Amino acid sequence: MSRPGRELPSLLLSHTARRRQRLTAALGTGFLLTVTSLSALAVFFIFYFIARDAWPFFRLEGAREFFTSMRWYPSAGSAEFGARAILVGSGLVTLGAIVVAVPLGVTAAVCLSDVLPFSVRQVVKPVIEILAAIPSVAYGFFALVVLAPLLQQSGGPILGLMVWIIGAPLAALAILVVVDLATDKLSDRSRSRVRVLAFGVLSAVAVAALAVAGKAASGLVISSGTNALNVSLILGIMALPTVVSVSEDALQAVGRDLREGSYALGATRAETLLRTVIPAASSGILAAVILGVMRAVGETMVVWMASGNAAQIPHPWYNLLEPVRTLTATIAGDMGEADHVTGSARYHVLFAMALCLLVFSFACNTSSEWIIRRARKKAGG
Amino acid sequence: MCAEASLPAIRLMVEMQNPAVEGCEKRSEPALPSHVETRDFSVFYRTNQAVKRVSLQMSAGRVTAIIGPSGCGKSTLLRAINRMNDLVPGCHTEGELLFGGQDLYSPDVDVVTLRRRVGMVFQKPNPFPKSIFDNVAYGPRLHGGVSRGGLAETVERSLVDAALWYEVKDRLHENALGLSGGQQQRLCIARALAVQPEILLMDEPTSALDPRATSRIEDLIAELKGHYTIIIVTHNMQQAARVSDYTAFMYEGNLVEFGATTQVFSTPRQKQTEDYITGRFG
Amino acid sequence: MRLQTRKILDRAFTGSGVLAIILMTAALLILLTPMFVRGSGAIFFTATVEHRRIMLEKFDRGDRDAVERDIRSARAAREPVYRAIAEFERQLAAGDAAPRRLYATPLKDVKKALSVLFGPEPGRPRPMLMRDQYGQARWDRAQVKLARVLCREEWDYSNPAKAGVLVLKPRAADFAGTPVAEIFPYLQQNADRMLLPRRTVYWQFLTDVSFDSHFFGGIWPEILGTLYLTLGAMMLAIPMGLIAAIYLTEYATESRLLDLLRTCISTLAGVPSIVFGLFGLAFFINTLNVSPSKSVLAGSMTLALMILPTVIRASEEALRAVPRTYKEAALSLGAGRWHAVWTIMLPAALPGILTGIVISMGRAAGETAPIIFTAAVSVGKPLAVWETLTQPTPALSWNIFNLATEHEAVDEVRHVQYGLVLVLVSLVLVLNLVAILLRARIAKRMRV
Questions:
Q1: Is B113 a member of any domain?
Q2: CB–CB of A18 and B228 under 8 A?
Q3: CB interface of A with C, residues 13-72, below 8 Å
Q4: Could you tell me which residues come within 8 angstroms of residue C332 by beta carbon, excluding any fewer than 6 positions away?
Q5: Is the ipTM of this complex over 0.90?
Q6: Which pTM value belongs to this model?
């Protein structure tokens, strides 16, 4: 066992050895800290270099025209740099993307965290991962080569069909709830007759409304498949994985006991989720939506390839069937012509746009972090 | 304080100072050198005092058990001996913790050497995700100066000492995580023995094991006794009674009672000790 | 509310959740199907004799005798067409000026359409552009071009209420009563004899250089460029990311500085990719002058910066997932902090770290926006390793965009576009598959 007579190493360090040890430790930690700070410093560098090249634009042309004018003629003899239409375009496709991604994403997240059995979840997770992994240029290619011709040739009938597919189940549920609530207070005898009557009347109204809306949608002629609708759909799918995974994390963070408490009171699964779990996870879901917005705003390739790149505000503003132009696409598209003329307003205006993007994404990021941190603190304490 | 701290100082216990020694003496055992000694030793986590002015002496070559309800500071005291508490931010100590006469918390103590001389076995078996051989060889390789043949010999000797050799000698290069829980814990003991420590700290070494594996570890402790100074923290009083020579009972950071195990369990001096041992609280 | 209604609503809720998941899966399938189906068409397709000619003449590939025999037999089959045209031209030259004027343009159009289909007329001087030197190499394109020979396109504006409508007019009608009228039914019936279509597997699509802005050849320069950019980015991002992760998990103590570092890293993760591209241009190229203009090096640096937060986060998570007791055990054996990290923590966290690295590799390979201004050109030769320091490169992602939008004949190179998409998507999918498998292994090990 332990060998007798072996020399025991001294516990004490000599003065120089101790100093050497301390020095190496300090140097090592210092090195690690330096490298870590370097990656953090990159953020400041990015802000600085983008702002440095954006500044001359605001000095030369002023910020007023940039934010208020709609005239974007950067290459004309007397160039005009009104970016309002472009800012609106970015906002519009982002809004469209959110309309697609949020209902779908949050529902899917709820389903993943509370409805599906474990084995199915194992299959669905890779689907989300692959959706997140597909390169944006591949999405853009799909939008341009597959989706755009499809929309252009038979966009109207597709939209008409969509009205029915989305509208019919929603209307059916709404009628069910309305009739139920309205007849709740009636006496037992008259109730069933009134209920049947109300069902009939409301269904007829709903079918008529859907028919009118569907007809109107089928009649739409889409002059160009590369438009805001196309881009919104694709951006929505691209933002889905972010929305799903962040919302799911938020839903998982809501404790089991809260759910069990609700079930114990006799609530159904839908009631438990809608009244208890989702409100408890709402801040996390909000963070998910913000991150989804960031993904959509910052996306370049899809909008560059499939948005039509027309610097105009659609008429009316929500008309997604018209082409638009976004900040990212403008930067990507115009730099090719502008980078030979470094120093011109045309070059610097693109940096001004990048600065807008940067500030916006910074604000989004900070607020989502703040929301998540606050939610965690609330859950912890 | 002893200047030649490199050798375990031969310190005779001053019998009359400590009531524990009386119990010892009544069984007319020879007085043993104390190997680790605390004097008014306290450990703080920021402002929270986890160990409160504890003074006790742990004899060389013997098994000392520290018992007490959870949260009583027994693990903290144990982890102070090889300064594992250094890792906890905001942890600091007061008083003296002597190892062979040298205060362990004096600024010029080399923690690496200290930990080499004081081995530790943890609550849950924690073999590295490496082969059995590499697990045991980790310490000797770390401290260097071993030839390849010498390394194999050290590994074999440590595994024999830990009573694991015959079970694993044909699969030394398989992953250690494939062993059973009890085998993993004995592997951890072998890993600790491979650096030839003088002291073995055991932090509830059997709490994650089944009864059979537990009794094998206890047998092993009995075999190791005499060659190593063993300090074991346990919440299992039967275990303390079975394996230890001395027992310290701690409660809320205070050392309530310390003495020969037979005495502590048969005729406890303090009411609190008696209550705890008879299962009235804790 | 009635219990029954509540139950129906509950089912509807569950159903909508399942529907959302099904929609998501359907979206993925709808996206991937055309990419895989049409993408594989770049490699597996029915090739005409022209393809075999290109392979023989440009790459010295294939059985020379067999190919030359094919070429001869195709020429022989085409012979009557050219003869009929020559015959008609002789008649016109001998006849009046009026029919000569009438038939001049239609005849020119037919000859042009024919040369697109079959390549230049035998006996004519060799044209400058390679796309004019050969006929249609792919049978599917050949059929489109054959239709152009048989019919001419005309826009019909007769209905002023509607936009112009495209109508196809058979050319045979234009030449009724002339020797040329004969060639149209002949072409229609004997197209396969004149082009000799055969099922072909063109593996070399992946390893061939391209000719004449992707009209012919493969996509090797793009694949190589993407590999260079990705590997370069990983070489820079992995060491930095790992070191940062080790510092953040093992060394840093909670403080203001740490909060600031974390905020910075998460802000970096949120910067839009196009802004990285601008930053790369403004900083790496215009300020640091790492290369005089676009280069693989500058592109790699930009990409590295972009994926750095992902690498840091993944490594941090993997390191945090290693049980604390491993580290304690190593320290209790007398290991120093750095030694414990190096010998115990890093190996134990390796699968997790690799997962993160593989995923960010996929992201670096697929990103386009950061390399537009820093590294990508549309046409280029495959670079040698040392040239990456100064030369720009074509890349899969950039060329998908470029060929699909800015190419002079977008429809003609559709198969190349799909081929590029297929290769890029497969690359990313394989990387993600590796990540999923790695993760499954970790999960299995955690259960032991």
A1: yes
A2: no
A3: 25, 28-29, 32-33, 35-46, 49-50, 52-53
A4: B82, B84, B115, B118, B119, B120, B122, B192
A5: yes
A6: 0.87
